[in-house]
Amino acid sequence: xxxxxxxxxxxxxxxxxxxxxxxxxxxxxxxxxxxxxxxxxxxxxxxxxxxxxxxxxxxxxxxxxxxxxxxxxxxxxxxxxxxxxxxxxxxxxxxxxxxxxxxxxxxxxxxxxxxxxxxxxxxxxxxxxxxxxxxxxxxxxxxxxxxxxxxxxxxxxxxxxxxxxxxxxxxxxxxxxxxxxxxxxxxxxxxxxxxxxxxxxxxxxxxxxxxxxxxxxxxxxxxxxxxxxxxxxxxxxxxxxxxxxxxxxxxxxxxxxxxxxxxxxxxxxxxxxxxxxxxxxxxxxxxxxxxxxxxxxxxxxxxxxxxxxxxxxxxxxxxxxxxxxxxxx
Length: 329
Description:
This protein is an alpha+beta fold. The chain has a five-stranded antiparallel β-sheet, with helices on both faces. A three-stranded antiparallel β-sheet has the order 6-8-9, with helices on one face. The chain starts with a helix and ends with a helix. Helix 4 (166-179) packs antiparallel against helix 8 (272-287). The longest helix is centred in the middle third of the chain and has 18 residues, at 117-134. Helix content is 38%, strand content 15%. It folds into two domains: 3-100, Phosphorylase Kinase, domain 1, CATH 3.30.200; 105-328, Alpha-Beta Complex (Aminoglycoside 3'-phosphotransferase, Chain: A, domain 2), CATH 3.90.1200.
């Protein structure tokens, strides 16, 4: 990325390139910390991968959530009073956005004992708040409408499954065919986060409150997908002998918090095994060629252990009593 692009981005928010502090964590973005008006903010510069209007739709959605009390990183207006800025660089277009920096630690860095009932409930409450607001949301312009989950790359879409993965491809297709029969009314299908793992959540150690950030993958999908993603990730992060007992407690409390902000029918909780399996296949498809066999303790290493066997032999991703867990919440 050219220095001139970074300089331009800094000027958009009333600061300079020399005052930007580079941050790690951007997979395809340049990310910086800066201060303005006594606020610590995060600046992101990223390529436009879909189109400019859809990118505007993402930031408009986050702004809507923030204004309606959802625990998300609040967007910061540029000096031009815009939520998003754009710049052309070597025939590529980049968007520039800034957010108030969330307090606390990344949820994925927390030790297992930090996940008390209150924190689990707060995560569920945050997601329930987003879903409840999604039911009444419409973009300001139709061109700003975000895509459906199955039309763009994300954690739910399998890719790179070659001929050696024929059994897994067939199982993926069966799940997709089944999901195609599910209803898509406004009470179950709307604008979701679609990548709600614990690297996208900050937790404030003082009060266990959470802040959600990085909405690049937000798209239209079933609300249950966001619920499945949290359960999917926690099963890898805390892959210990009692992980299913731990996951059950997490999910019970997650749903308890979720239900304070949004209603979900038992039918959708019973669909979680399908969404979990779709996630399992999709993440496997993105990793099986390239993950580091010599790092078994990494997220990828823990996830990939016996994964091909488990998928091909229909081993449930999680053995949880989905039939009754909502009643336990």
